[in-house]
User: Fold SMP-30/gluconolaconase/LRE-like region family protein 4 from Achromobacter arsenitoxydans SY8.
Amino acid sequence: MPNRELSVLASGYTYLEGLRWHDDRLWASDFYTGQIITVTQQGAVDRVCLVPQQPSGLGWLPDGRMLISSMKDRKVLRREKDGALSVHADLSALTGGHINDMVVDAQGRAYVGNFGFDIMAGAPVRTTTLVRVDPDGVAQVVADGLCFPNGSFITPDGKTLIVNETFANRISEFDIQPNGSLGPRRDWANFGELPDSDNLDTLIAASAIAPDGGALDEEGAIWVADAIGKRIVRVERGGRILEQIDTGEFGIFAAALGGPDGRTLFMAAAPDFIEANRRAKPQARILATRVDVPHAGRP
Assistant:
């Protein structure tokens, strides 16, 4: 496998998620300072806005307005042209925990995942929903029975939604119907059966990978951030690992392909995902490296 040289693009954050390459900049959410930032390829950082209830997934409507997952109050926010934030949709009644990552399609429909249980309190693991929010803010459940639906991708033809299930040891996919509804779930990749348990430690111990965020490339492979493996892996459909980048003491929790040619892999790195630890020490950083195959699809 190639020896990828990693560089630090930005550092000193609490826990970064939602990496997106958009308008010639990298965008990211920092959970515990509540800020959304942009970073140029030269490392210049700008703060875009504050989201008091913790930002995560990001996306854009066709008219350029940004959508933001506001995690703790389970609302999708919309950033207006003047920079003001308004409520695009309230998902409280449709979700089982903090809302999290999302992907927005070419029509402006947002597919939003959620935790499903209180992970930081050590609650029993529960499966949960995937919610679609239409451009007018109307929301409905489009899939259920998912275990921590997280980073999601839409193929370049707009016909397939791929969803990382962080604590299911698998990546799922759905056919996207013309009206935005989803067909039945099927495996995009399955890394092995898990025990019938609602204990998170048990599930993690039995998992080969915990797919968090990631990035889809032109060959149809996904760079998958492994939330338990201190690595990012490039996986082809079916589950074969094509490449692995180890990151030593830091885990990788989100990723994006971008840069002018789409071949820079950006990675959100932190020592762990435990809220108390990350609030106490602002050690999160964005790493970057060059890869061979450029970005494709959404986000």
